[in-house]
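Bench log, entry 3. Co-assembly request; chain sequences pasted below exactly as received.
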Amino acid sequence: MTFIWATRGLIWGFRFLRDGGCEEPLRAYDDSFSELWDESEVCRRLSGKVALRFPDPLGRRDRAGRIIPHDFVVFEPLAHEVESVEDGIRLVWPLVADEFVRVWQLSMPPSPSE
Amino acid sequence: MQVNRALEQHIAVFGESGSGKTVMISSFYGATQEPQYLQKSLFHVVADEIGQGNRLHRNYLGMRDSARLPSPTRFSATSYSFSVRLKDGVEGKAIKARPFDALRLVWHDYPGEWFEEDVSGLGEATRKIDTFKSLLASDVALLLVDGQRLLDNAGKEERYLKSLMANFRNGFLSLKDELLDDGKPLIEFPRIWIMALSKSDLLPNLDVFNFRDLLIEKSGDDINELREVLAGLVEANDALSVGEDFVLLSSAKFGTDKIEVAKRVGLELILPITAMLPFERHVRWAQAKQLPGKVAQNLLGGAVALAAILIGRKVKLPGPIAAIMAAVGPNLLDEAVKMAGDKLREVNSAAISKHDYMTATLTRFRMDLDKGEEEHVLLRSRR
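Structure output for the full assembly:
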């Protein structure tokens, strides 16, 4: 259980690309991001987890022209090292950056195995 | 349409992700908080939940002052409830004699991708079903056609329009079993489905007639198929308008580094559309068709209340529809729904001078619909 990752693509909409081993990632996601829906950058520690959000580091946008955000719920032990958005971009983003390159322009949302 | 001291009407806005749903509701609400609006209007629009109001207002200010778009909606839907609070006018007995003394608009917003693709978990699937049940209890639905996507497909608009209509159609079909209890068609259902061009500022040469013609020419069959799917969800499906009404909407003029929120199209018609369009249409259907009792009751309860205020006659509500009709007389609805032109202006002026702001507001809404048609922003079905 390292992290939950929710994002969207150029065409496909928000979905969980990593579930962090949770059967229902939506619950953990909601708990972590409550009251933070409008913030473009987030790093908040709550109950040993870190809610982390940042705009796509390469400035990629969706079809409507909005910069794509990446939302994570980071669990321990990785969460222990994430104290800021900058930490998140340095430590968490490299773990998914290549995967996002592969999937963000797909016409359909990727399946969890992709 | 519920009546219980407040006439509550719901609007559902269906549109793909990025088609401008959240921008639209933010622009609608934010504009009502501007000093000019507060001064000239006979009412205040108040968000029933302070947090929701602040969020929409912040979205609006972000657009107006920083050219910043609202955050996209993720994994959850929100129903925004607005009270239309009339400024001080008549008091005491006159207020008590009215069938209702406030208006409420409930506006349902949801993540657009819920119609376009599978959700990514059981929790989200449950939310999606619950949301669409709420959406389908609305009085009016807007189906958004994204002006940007029309522009992207210039000359081959049918590619986009067919895919959009197929998404709507398949979205409803796939949910049908879960939306209907024991397969029974719904009585409470949006019976007016308006085709709405969002981001219409991007297509300045397109008026509402051009928009209608484009849809009919490039996607008329798909609209008919959508109508058949919706008709399969609803009881008394003759009382249903799908793709017969059209409106142009623009939440602002969007530039590369600024968003001009004062340059809006059609958003001032949202309140008149939700308050008055169902009234006009429901009365017409009731007059033209033999509607089953429960459907007639559902459609006409609010209509009788509205007619009473438009005409300025006292009625006692609620009650079985036959009793209401007997009490108010057969001509009340007809008289109210046909009130137009000079007569409408006359009633409006008289209501303002008597400080009867409810009648003044509702007659103004009807005048606004007429104005929307004159300006080729709105096109109402004549059926």
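The mean pLDDT of chain A is 92. The longest helix of chain A spans residues 25-33.
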